[in-house]
Fold these 4 entries.
Entry 1:
Amino acid sequence: MTEDLERQLTRLYVALAMTRNVAQRAKDPDEASRSVVTLVDVASGIVEEILNPPLSYSIEPNTSTTEIEMVM
C-alpha cells in the first residue's frame, strides 16, 4: 500500500467517523438515521481491515500539512 493511498483511506475513515457522529446525534432517530449509522459502521469496518496493520506513515514536524490533516 502506498503512502498516498494510506492518507486517502485515513481521510475516508475520519469522514465516516464524523458522519456516524452526526447521524447518532439525531434527537428523534428515524429509520433512515439508523440505516446511515449501520452503513457507516460497515464501511468503517472495511476501511479498518484495509488499514490493518496500523498506518505506517508519520507526519514529521517539518512537513507541511493541511488543516484537515492536522484535525485527523
Entry 2:
Amino acid sequence: MPLEELTETTFTLVAEHMSLTQIIEAAEGLIELAFHPTRPKQAPPMPIDELQALLEKVIDLRDWQELEEEDDRSDIQKLIDNATDADAVLVRDPSGTPELQEIGILELLQRYPCRGSDARWSADDAIAFLETKTHWLDAALESWDADGEAIGSDSDLIEAKAVVLVVPGQPGQALRTELHDVLIPVDS
C-alpha cells in the first residue's frame, strides 16, 4: 500500500477518536520514542515515514482550521471574495462553525469524500461542482483586464456568481450546488 493511502487510512481511523491537537501530540511522541536512546535495539521498527506524513497532514489541517476559526468576514463578504478565488471553495454545512466556510479544494475532497460508506456525492458530482466553480470564476475574471482594471464597466461594481456546496442537515442526503449573485467592487 502506498504511503499516501496508508497515511489517509491511519488519519481516518484516528480522527474519529482524537482531536487534531491530540493526534499531533501522539505522532510527535511516537517519533521521539523511536529515536530515544533507551529504546531496545530489538524492538520492532517504528513507521517513521508514515508518522511524519501523518504529522504533516494533521498540522496542515489544524492550520486550515485555525484560519477558518479566525475568519470574521460576513457571509456576504465570503461570497464576494470567493467569486474570484481559484484556490478555495465555499461550503455551507450546518454542522460546522462557522456554517459558511471557505476551504481548499483538497480539504473539500477529504471532508466530503466521493467514495465509501460516508460518501454523499459521486466523483461525477464533485467534478461537476468544480467545473461550475471554474465556469463562474472564469466569467468573473473575464471582467478584468491584465492590469486589474474593470473592462467596459461604467459602474463601481461587477456582477459575478459565487458557487457554494451545500451540505443538507439530514444525514445521507446528497450534497448540492447553489449559485449566489454577488457584486464585486471595482477598485478605483
Entry 3:
Amino acid sequence: MTHKVKFTAKNSSGEQTLHIDLDHPNLEGKVGLTLLGDYRGDDIQIDFNSIDEKQFAKTLRFILSQIDEKGK
C-alpha cells in the first residue's frame, strides 16, 4: 500500500507529493519514501533512504502525541 501526501512549499512553483510505501517487496520490513513534483517546470524525484518500519511507527506516534498535546 502506498499512501500519498500532497504539499506545496512556500518557495515552490508547483505541488509535491510524498509517496509512503509500506509494503514494497524489495524493502524487507522498511518504509520507502519518495518525493515527486516539479521545480520550475521540471519534474523532480527524490528517493530517500528507506526507514525501518518500527522506527517510522515510533516517529508517527511521537508526531501524533505532539499534536494531541498542542490541542489540549
Entry 4:
Amino acid sequence: MRRNLFIIFILFCFVLSSSLVFAAKKDTPKVRYMDKFGKPDTCWITVEQAKIDHKAKATVSLFNDEKLAAMTIPLRFGDGKTPIYCDSVIFTKTRVDYFQLKSALIDSTNQTVLIGLIADLSGKVPALAEGKGEVAHMYFTMKKDAKLGGVTIDTTFINPSNTLKLVTENVKDIIPLWDNKMGQIKFQTAK
C-alpha cells in the first residue's frame, strides 16, 4: 500500500513539476507538441451557447492512442477583466468519470481553470484506455451588462508549473495537440 502511494506521489510530482520545462513564460501558451507514441494525441474544446441566454457550456475532449494515467489541462477564459465567470467543472458521464482524483481549481481573478486528473491512487483502477471523447464540462455565466464581444478559451501556463500535459502508464509525458477553433464564448449586447 505504501509503495503504491509513493508511486502515485512521484507520478503527481512528475506531472506538476516537469511542465516547467515547456513553459516559455506566464500567460504565454507556447505549447510544444510532443508525442512519440503513434498518432498525435489531441485535446480540444467546443462551446455550446444559446443566443438569448447568458450561459455557456464548454466541453473538453481528448483523443489518445495509448493508456493514460494522468493529465493536466490548464485553461484561460479571459484576461482578468472579461465579463464572464466559470461556475463549475463537471466530470460526470465523461471518459474520466471513474478516475480517483479529479480536480478543477477555478481562479476567478485570473480567469483560469486548472484541471488535474489521476486515474489510480489505490493500485486498483485502470488507466484511461485508448479512445476519443469528453473529459470535462465547464459551465460559464456572462455578466448581463456585457458588451458585444467574446473570448476564446485557450490553454495556458498556471503557476507553479502547469501546462497541457498527458502522462502514460509508464510515466512518459506527452504534450498533445491543442485545438480551440470551436472554443469561443460570445457575449450578448446589453438590453
